[in-house]
Amino acid sequence: MTQVVELPLWLFVVILLFAAVTALSHFLLPSVRWFFRRRLERAVERLNKRLTRPIEPFKLARRHDMIQRLIYDPQVSQAISDHARKEGVPENVAFQQASRYAREIVPSFSAFAYFSFGIRLARFLANALYEVRTGKENAALIKSIPSDATVIFVMNHRSNMDYMLVTYLAGEASALSYAVGEWARVWPLSRLIKSMGAYFIRRKSRGALYRRVLARYVQLATEGGVTQAIFPEGGLSLDGKLMPPKMGLLGYVLDAKLADRDVVFVPVAINYDRVLEDRVLIEAGRTGTRRFRARISVILIFILRKTWLRIRGKFLRFGEAAVVFGEPVRLRDYGVSPDVNGLAQDLMHRIAQEMPLLFVPLMARIVLEAKAPLTADALETEMARMLERASTSVSVPHDDFAGAVSKAREHLLQRGMIETVQGGFVSASDEEPALTFYANSIAHFFDA
Asked: Do residues 418 and 367 lie in contact, with contact meaning Cβ atoms separated by under 8 Å?
């Protein structure tokens, strides 16, 4: 026992490293984790006092615990057995597949990342790129919702900036949980998005096992009172119009066991003077494919060019971006057994009626309809007539109407979508698809 043992130096270093790791994992790290978790819990308690809708315990649960709860859920267990029997594989193989789905879907929400970094980034980007406008009653509508209800923001999908805008504008109310597609699964973006509380969806998956795991997560979140944000269209609009709703996530919400908890849907209408991805979306619509051909090099060059212009003080924002919250509607208002199709259609109709009438889309419609060049005065007159003609009051008020019309005109001129000719302004010959893309966002007010 007291004999001297000689070891090579490299082996001695390896033994020390293993000993240090063991000491850290069994003694130090649990204490450190407990210390920081207690500090985080106290910070969340203080945060919840100023939020209109406090963060629910479900959202703050440890990710590992949530994954375990999901994969051992009775409905998921039954789906695992059915999948194993159908595919002719052992149940442990089907169980591992369900575990992979659960790890892919379940977020790792961090209140610190969301409220200290996420909202500030969203606010900075939104205000750096746009003049952000909101509905007058947005804050009051959220405060009017019962505190024990599950709130689901139901939004049209115009741009990937939608996430930033609504996160920023709903930041004083609560933390939103988004459903995001495959585009967000790229590392390290995926880690950041999961820490913001978003969960991934394989939109093209048709497997019954995957759908059951996803359905149970959405239902558990709904039952747990998590504030969620859903895009019923399922993707970005390629032509500027509202697309028919898809029933998946809404159907999962209807199947949740809510007991005494009610679900309140908040229709959210979003519109832009400029959609960042407009050319990509128009091209995808032209070719009839949703495979967006946006190379990362093009995106980086675009960001660098705009950053350089901003440093030189020559960057002009992309016009206005407006977000309007509609009147909240309770799930109970749709009856004891609501039809998911009727619910989806009604929510999309409510979004359409709240769509902001921005001046660039209005002017795009005017120049498309014009049979001859329009002078600046004629454009202003037509804008006023269009606003009166629209069967809605959801317009963005301006203290200087003439100045707002002038800004919209200059915006379209700078982008080359309209041009100056003798006698006034006309649409550029090759820009009709782009003008139509923007005019379509408010066309339903006039076509009806």
From this structure: yes
pLDDT band at 57 (very low <50, low <70, confident <90, very high): confident
Residue with tokens 């004083």: 172
Asked if residue 430 belongs to a domain, the reply is yes
Structurally, how many domains does the chain consist of? 2
The span from the CA of 274 to the CA of 317, in Å, is: 10
Name the band, by pLDDT with cuts 50, 70 and 90, for residue 327.
very high
The token pair that represents 268 in the structure block: 């959210």
Among 353, 372, 406, the domain-final residue is: 353
For 9-18, 139-148, 248-257, 397-406, which range has the lowest pLDDT when averaged over its residues?
A: 9-18
**DSSP E strand boundaries for 85-188:** 131-134, 150-155, 177-180
Q: Which of 267, 70, 109 is nearest to 198 (CA)?
A: 109
Would residue 127 count as lying in a domain? yes
CATH number of the structural domain spanning residue 211: 3.40.1130.10
Structure-block tokens of residue 119: 């909202």
Which pLDDT value is given to residue 72? 94
Q: By three-state DSSP, how is residue 395 classified? A: strand
Closest CA to 127 of 189, 176, 171, 169: 169
d(CA 96, CA 80) in angstroms, rounded, equals: 9
The answer to whether residues 257 and 367 belong to one domain is no
The first and second tokens of residue 340, run together, are: 């998911």
Measure CA 347 to chain center: 17
Which pLDDT does position 100 carry in this prediction? Answer: 93
pTM value surpassing 0.85: no
